[in-house]
Each structure stands twice: as C-alpha cells, then as structure tokens.
Amino acid sequence: MQHPIRVMLVDDHAVVRAGYRVLLSQADHLEVAVEAESGEQACQFYVEHQPDVVVMDLSLPGIGGLAAIRRIRARDEGARILVFSIHDELAYVSRALEAGAKGYISKASAPDILLEAVLKIAEGGIYVEPELARRLEGQSAPGEPQAESFGNLSAREFDVFCLLAQGHTTRQVADELCMGYKTAANYATAIRGKLGVSTTAEMARLAYQNGLLKS
Fold first, then answer.
1. Cα–Cα distances in Å, from 76 out to 47, 48, 58, 62, 136?
2. What pLDDT, in 10s, does the model give residues 156-202?
3. The dihedral of CA 134, 166, 110, 77: what is its sign?
C-alpha cells in the first residue's frame, strides 16, 4: 500500500482549516497530519512532524507566512510548501516563490486545483495556478507593473506596507499582525525610508502601480 502524503495545514482560522481537511480527505492518498495557526507554530510543527507538503496561508499572526516559509526552508532546503492565499496580486506570488515556496494558488480557485497542486508538489514539482502563471510570464511586458520596488522590504515589512497602503491605521496594523503599536510604528518608519515615501497616500499609489491594490 502506498504511503499517504502527509500534509500540514497552516491557517489562523479553524473553520477554514476544517474545510481544507474535508477537501483533502476526499483523496485516499492524502492525510492532514498536523495543523498550525501561526507562522511560529508552522516552523515548530514542521520540525516535529516532518510533513511531506505544507499548505500555507500568508496572512498569519506572529511572524507571518512569508517569514515562516523562509525559516522552514532555512531548516530544510527540500521543504515543499504550497501557498494557498486570498491574495492573487503578482507581488505576493513573486515574494512567496522567492522565499522558497514550491507553488501558489489563490483561495478563489476551484477545489480540485488544491488537490492537483498538493499532488504535484509532493512529487517534487512546482505548481502555480494557471492564471497566475500566465500573468507572471507577462509581467515584464511593456506597461505591466513591476514588484522590484519592494525588494528591500523584509517579509514583515511587506505585510505592514500592504495593510498601510490599504488604508489601515498603525493601530489597526498592530492588531491585525499581533504586534505592539510601537513595533508597527517602527516598521512604518522603516518602510517609508526604504521606499522613499513620506505619506500613506504615496504608499497607496506605489501599491496600486505594482498591482497590490484593485482599481
């Protein structure tokens, strides 16, 4: 009998994880071995349980999904991580793949896409949702927004930047990312310095130009 593919689900919403678990259980060669609700837990549980595939959300409390991907990959270069996120903007996709993710699909994708992606990555392949892959291939075309502007931001700075650009206050950013107000304010100051902007409006404009905000 073939050994089942052991999956770790990483999402901070228990109801969402329950839905993933039901979906993955439909394939008799997949099993959800462990669940985590934060980036820190994901790193800890990866070491303890050694799952075959990690299904990782990006919007997590604590260190966040991007940083968790980097930490897991630093411990195990062979880690197979699939990002399953509400974000379908190319800057997120690029950052996740650069961090070491082996695949990226959006939560708006059809259920069978998740199963297909997990199986492909478990086999050692790379899987990017077809529509996202098409957009990635065309992002260097004339007139397409580029994500290089954010290359100097750390994973957590990128998370903070996106929330500020969406109109969140510093207090709301702190609450959303489970950090202190002063920490969030320090991140905001560092981000403005790295990006050469001075106002939230300028952040929003930069985010829009890079496809991080919808028109």
1. 9, 13, 19, 21, 26
2. 888 889 889 888 899 998 887 878 899 999 999 999 998 888 888 88
3. positive
Cα separation, 175 vs 119, in Å, equals 36
Angstrom distance (rounded) from CA 90 to CA 96: 10
The residues, ordered by sequence, that sit 6+ positions from 135 with a Cβ below 8 Å of its Cβ are: 90
Phi, then psi, of 174 in degrees rounded to 5: -60, -45
pTM for the complete prediction? 0.76
List the domains of the chain with CATH numbers.
5-138 (3.40.50.2300), 148-209 (1.10.10.10)
Compute how many other C-beta atoms are within 10 angstroms of the C-beta atom of residue 43: 22
Q: What is the CA radius of gyration of the chain?
A: 17
